[in-house]
Amino acid sequence: MQNAKDTFYMMLQSRLATLNPARTIVVRGVVRPGTLVDENELPSAWVPVDVFRLRWTGLQVNNTGPLPLVAMECSIQYATDGSSGNGGMDRGRLLAAMDAELAAALGAKPHTVGKMNYSAAGAGVAATPMGTNVFWADPVFGAAKAVEERLERTTTVQVFAYQEAGEL
Amino acid sequence: MSTTTTGAGVEASVAPVTRRVRAYFAPVNRSAGVPTLFDAAQLGRFDLHAPPAPWVDLGWVSGFTRKCGTKVDALRAGSPAMTVGQVRTEVEATVSLAFETWGKLQVTLASGSQQTNLLTTTAGAAPNGSGGVATAPVPLLTSTGPASTATSLNVGTAAAAGFSVGSLVAVDVDYTGQLGYVGTGVSSAYVQSAGAVGGDVNYVRRVTLNVGVVVAITAGVLELASALPAGGPTAGMQVSQLVGFCDREGASFFQEWSGLFVMSGVQGDRVLVHYPRLQAMQGSTETEEALAAPLERIRLAGAFRALPVKDANDGETVLCFRSYLPAVLRGV
């Protein structure tokens, strides 16, 4: 399952970065594309804005087929305060831009990506291709919420993958 | 967690998972009774957005439902009668779907009969349900300027002034008394007598599927958004402007087409369903999808009955072909 989660995250990060390379975040002093997975970062009460934060919130496993079919719910949270230059009055536009980027990234074809094993990947070591594809349904956009001057939204997407032989 | 493998490096075969069904059209030569056959062995992996000629993309369809009407009865013998075998007493297959796109082809196929182009009418023309008397067609120039092609129509600067970007055009031959199937590229209607169509010089253009949209006009040449289905115009073809399309409940013609439906699996597998001969089994109808009150999205609903062809491999008479192309390195 972790391979499917990693693969989906890398796919989404790559597609979003291609759509808007200027959307970045500084994490522990390093500038990264503006997509991160909460559970992979240091716990913090700070809510980063103008980036996409992934949380894995649901899990189902269907064992009826020859390969277990894993369905995972990915919640993608994003928020914006607007830009200071505009006094925050553009927060609706900035949220709409993030909506559009996320819709385009998840709606782009193909709606599948080859599953990769990132467990041994690192500097100079590439991820290992696996035998099946990760695929996903259409995203479901939640209602926009206004928290004081901040606008935020949570979008969920069902991500599916087959658990391959020997895969944990 | 238990898993199953079928061999080193080979994953177990799983049921295809697909998002949607893509539909493709190819003409049936009605005069010769010859459909377009799709060979999945040669072309099964084609790019869904670029089907091999002469297949034409009809776009995504929803509610794709295949029904087998074949009846299998028991063959009994003896006393008391016991089943000693089985026989097929009827063979039938139908398919129903809703088109996501309202194009000329989709509207025509869903209507199931001849589908008329609403040609622009002459001033004061008497009202008629499928369009009144049409304006005079515009000839394609052959001696002045560039030759017309499937995507550009040389009508000359004077005639081009009568068109504008966005104009819809029908390109086909004049009706000069032809009987039988008419329509270039695709048989669009069947003329039983010249009198039945009133000797209308525009009749073929009125029913043709050879239509396009003008996206630019340059030095008397109409540039089209996409290639005309019948290819480059031939001698004698003229251009008529139209404003839309019309079909009728109760018309006599049965539209027939070769259909291909592709379900592309998320693991790289693919299911192709090919009906060499399909005819509509219902009149024009629509399905409504509620968006948010009072908005509804209207889809073209079609239901088709398959007609038989002979498989050249063994001479069997069949209605459809379902092909399955497994993903790479899957058990079979």
Topology at a glance:
The complex is a heterodimer of chains A (168) and B (332).
Chain A: H1 2-19, E1 24-27, E2 30-33, E3 35-37, E4 52-62, E5 69-80, H2 91-107, E6 112-117, E7 128-136, E8 140-141, E9 145-147, E10 150-162
Parallel strand pairs in A: 3-4
Antiparallel strand pairs in A: 1-2, 4-5, 5-10, 6-7, 7-10, 8-10, 9-10
Helix pairs in contact in A: 1-2
Chain B: E1 5-7, E2 10-11, E3 21-27, H1 40-43, E4 56-68, E5 71-77, E6 82-90, E7 93-99, H2 104-111, E8 116-119, E9 138-139, E10 152-154, H3 157-160, E11 168-173, E12 180-182, E13 189-191, H4 203-207, E14 211-218, E15 221-224, E16 237-246, E17 256-264, E18 270-280, E19 285-292, E20 295-306, E21 309-310, E22 317-318, E23 321-325
Antiparallel strand pairs in B: 1-2, 3-4, 3-17, 4-7, 5-6, 7-20, 8-16, 9-16, 10-15, 11-14, 11-16, 12-13, 14-15, 17-18, 18-20, 18-23, 19-20, 21-22
Report on this structure.
The complex is a heterodimer of chains A (168) and B (332). Chain A has 168 residues and is of the alpha+beta class. Chain A is 21% helix and 40% strand. Chain A is built from 2 helices and 10 strands, in the order αβββββαβββββ. In chain A, strands 3, 4, 5, 6, 7, 8, 9 and 10 form an 8-stranded mixed beta sheet that branches. In chain A, strands 1-2 form a two-stranded antiparallel ribbon. In chain A, helix 1 (2-19) crosses helix 2. The longest helix of chain A is centred in the first third of the chain and has 18 residues, at 2-19. Chain A starts with a helix and ends in a 6-residue tail after the last strand. The model of chain A has no long low-confidence stretch (mean pLDDT 94). Chain B is mostly beta strands. In chain B, 6% of the residues lie in helices and 42% in strands. Chain B has helices at 40-43, 104-111, 157-160, 203-207; strands spanning 5-7, 10-11, 21-27, 56-68, 71-77, 82-90, 93-99, 116-119, 138-139, 152-154, 168-173, 180-182, 189-191, 211-218, 221-224, 237-246, 256-264, 270-280, 285-292, 295-306, 309-310, 317-318, 321-325. In chain B, strands 8, 9, 10, 11, 14, 15 and 16 form a 7-stranded antiparallel beta sheet that branches. In chain B, strand 12 (180-182) and strand 13 (189-191) form a beta hairpin. Chain B is globular. The interface between A and B is medium-sized, with 21 and 17 residues.
